[in-house]
From TrEMBL:
Pfam families: Methyltransf_23. One of its GO terms (biological process) is methylation. SUPFAM superfamilies: S-adenosyl-L-methionine-dependent methyltransferases (SSF53335). It comes from Reichenbachiella agariperforans. One of its GO terms (molecular function) is methyltransferase activity. This is Methyltransferase domain-containing protein. Gene3D superfamilies: Vaccinia Virus protein VP39 (3.40.50.150). Keywords: Methyltransferase, Transferase.
Amino acid sequence: MSFDQKYSKTHQIRFARTLSFLKRSVTAPAKILDLGPGNPFGEIMKEEGFDVTNTALGVDLDLDYDVVKDEQYDVVTAFEIFEHMVAPFNLLREIKADKLIASIPLKLWFANAYWNEKDPWDRHYHEFEPRQFDMLLEKAGWKIVAAEKWITPIYKIGVRPLLRRFTPRYYIVSCERIG
């Protein structure tokens, strides 16, 4: 898939890496529940032949996780969702699909967690280290079968953009339900 100019270079890189990982883990036309409201990457998955359903806009997945109990889905995807949740463990434990693919932004020693003062839905309650996320998944009943970290450079001048050129920013995993 070629990502056109409607996406920033940073998004193009992230979407390409995520799609490549997804395709190594799942084949189309898998039925996917993509956590979070409709988004550009969900549209890309549909273009690639996946049958994608998103959760409704405004659903608080910390409190309402009935949607993940639906057994009709082959895979649940969660791309940069869990950092926005206060307690992702509960939702992870309730997922009925046998496969989970999730990515998170990693905790960076040189940057604070993202916090949008104007939008209460656009905040990071967690930014995980890989081992923390691995432990969360294992405790919730998931076995990681593939994992990858990658950088996503920011094309600006400064110390932080320079550090982001060689410090992994994203972590993605493919998991199978244990038992």
